[in-house]
Structures are given as structure tokens and as C-alpha cells.
Amino acid sequence: MHDLLALKLQRFATLSSGDVGAIAQICRHTVRTAHARRDIIREGDAPHHVKLIVDGWAFRYKMLDDGRRQILNYALPADMVGLQGALMREMEHSVEALTPLVLCVFPRSKLWDLYTRFPSLAFDVTWLAAREEQLIDEHLVSLGRRTALERIAYLLLHLFARAEESGLVKNGTIQFPFTQQHLADTLGMSLVHTNKTLKRLYLTKAVRWKDRIFEITDRAALVAIAGNDIPRHRPRPFI
């Protein structure tokens, strides 16, 4: 399990044997499973543990008083959830399992130990957290300025790139576990509007999505519709 986190961090920096050992120590704790459509973290919780997704998809979201849901972003294998609660003492959003999950759960005290004993590795984890903030920035741009067609094109491009990063894309295709309702709740659109906009996207021949099997058939066309490509990984800064 620790190999997942190590693999993700190595995309940004070379890990020493000590760093890999520290990850192994962290992930030596409890392994848990979670059913799909169940909250694994709830807004207002003060969790004493951080969860590393070993297998499956989840999403972060907030609920309004009238029951409307805003999906903030998605979590894939090797992503951590509950980090906000570990650092800020209280979660300001919920996390739901989109698929059945396998989780490595470790006490937040181990996180403090990481920052104390392995500052370089701790900085890598901070870098990843900052990257999540960057993803939220792009999501805000979509909600505020992109057209409906641009929003969907960018989101699908983004999720495909995330799936590639996690090794989930096989032969250029991915079985997306989410529905059009999830897309609507992510993009701040009605289900009807989302359905009509997806049909417009299909007509461009840039993507194919049938029986949840998704494929980008013309990446250049999809990027042109989205108005922006997904930035490739850059080496992390050193301070």
C-alpha cells in the first residue's frame, strides 16, 4: 500500500530509502473498506485519522440546507482525505465513496512525526496538498467563466488525466464510475442541461462515452473546446 503514495510522490521528487521507509511505517496501520455511496468523512467531523485511498474513487462535497450538493473534486488511489481535519481540527466538507474503497487509515500523530523526522518528504506532501488547491482554482474558473460546453470538456479532460496519473487508464480508455448527476453537481448545472451539453460534446467526435467506458478520440479537439489543456507535472520547487 505504501507503494501507491511513494509512486505518486516520486512524480515530483526522488525519494530516499529513508523516505520510502517512512511511508511504509505510516501505511502499516489499519486497512479498512468502505461501501459505495457511504460517507467516509462528514463535514464538522474532527477526525483523529487520515485516510489514504488504496483502491477506488471518492469525492469531496458540501451540502446546502435545502439539500443541494456541490461536488468540490474527486479523490483517486494514492490521494489522502481527512488531511484538512488533521491540520485544521475540523472538516469543512464531506467525503463520499463513489465506488467501494480500500483505505489505509493512520493516526494524525503519524503525520506530525513525518513533518518532524522527514522534512523533505513532509514538504512533498505539502506540495501535493497545494496542487489540490490549484485544482480547486481551476474548478472555480469553470463555475465562474467557462461556458457549459467548456466546463464539461475541461472536467472530463481533467478526470481522464487524473485517472492516467493513477494508472487506471488501459488502452486509452477508462471506466468512469460517476453518473451525469455527479457531473451536474460538480459543474453547478441541472441534470437536463448537463445531458444536453454532453450530447453537444459527443457531436464534436472529441470523446466517446458509452456504458461508462470513456475514451478521448481527439485530444486536440477536446483541449480546443475546453480552452485549456491539463498542465503536465513539473518538478517540485525546493526551498
Describe it for me?
With 239 residues, the chain is an alpha+beta fold. Helix content is 45%, strand content 21%. It is built from 9 helices and 11 strands. The strands form 3 sheets. It has a 4-stranded antiparallel sheet with strand order 1-8-3-6. A 4-stranded antiparallel sheet has the order 2-7-4-5. A hairpin with a 2-residue loop joins strand 10 and strand 11. The radius of gyration is 18 Å and the shape is globular. The chain starts with a helix and ends in a 13-residue tail after the last helix.
Overall pLDDT metric: 83
- Listing every helix as H and every strand as E from the N terminus to the C terminus, the arrangement reads HHEEEEEEHEEHHHEHHEEH
Number of helices: 9
Give the structural class. Answer: alpha+beta
Total number of strands: 11
Report how far the terminal alpha carbons are from each other: 29 Å
* Strand order of the biggest β-sheet: 1-8-3-6
- What shape does the CA trace take? globular
Largest sheet: 4 strands, antiparallel
List keywords for this structure.
globular, alpha+beta, four-stranded antiparallel sheet, 9 helices, 239 residues
Note the topology.
Elements: H1 2-9, H2 17-26, E1 31-34, E2 39-41, E3 49-55, E4 58-63, E5 69-75, E6 80-81, H3 83-88, E7 94-97, E8 101-107, H4 108-117, H5 119-144, H6 148-165, E9 173-175, H7 180-187, H8 191-203, E10 207-210, E11 213-216, H9 219-226
Antiparallel strand pairs: 1-8, 2-7, 3-6, 3-8, 4-5, 4-7, 9-11, 10-11
